[in-house]
Amino acid sequence: MKFVLNRDKVITSKLGHAIGFVKGQPTHVPKGMWNEVLAVGAVPEDDLPEAAANTSKEPQDPGERQTMIFAAFEALVLGGKRESFSGTGVPHAKALAAQIGFIIDNKERDALWQEFKQLPTEKE
Rounded CA gap, 82 and 122, in Å? Predict the structure, then answer.
């Protein structure tokens, strides 16, 4: 599907894709990036399919979002797979995305990880 943006801009996906928009020119965007280009203000050339318009699993409520991410952290910790964590002990973005169904940026992940580590454990 093609999208139009009101300015020249290169949008880099969290999945590694990059799309260069030229002001007012329709540009093809792969389905996996639709939500990302919509978030920066791109407008679809045609109407979005109804199913695609409501496919985001990403919660907008901050409390619900934090609860979901903390549950994913706990699942990764209990899973105990070394490859799920970086050398510094932070969950890898791909492992976290596999748990929650969407990608969060590293700043949010790191801040929430610090909060998660401060939670009392069952042993305490």
Answer: 22
**C-alpha span between 65 and 59 (Å, rounded):** 5
Q: How many CB atoms lie within 10 A of CB 57?
A: 8
SS (H, E, C) the chain: CEEECCCCEEEECCCCCEEEECCCCCEECCHHHHHHHHHCCCEECCCCCHHHHCCCCCCCCHHHHHHHHHHHHHHHHHHCCHHHECCCCCECHHHHHHHHCCCCCHHHHHHHHHHHHHCCCCCC
Tens digits of per-residue pLDDT, 5-31?
889 999 888 777 889 999 999 999 888
For residue 47, pLDDT over 80 is answered with: no
pTM (2 decimals)? Answer: 0.54
Residues 28 and 49: beta-carbon distance below 8 Å: no
Cβ–Cβ under 8 Å, residues 14 and 56: no
| Six token digits for residue 23 | 């002001």
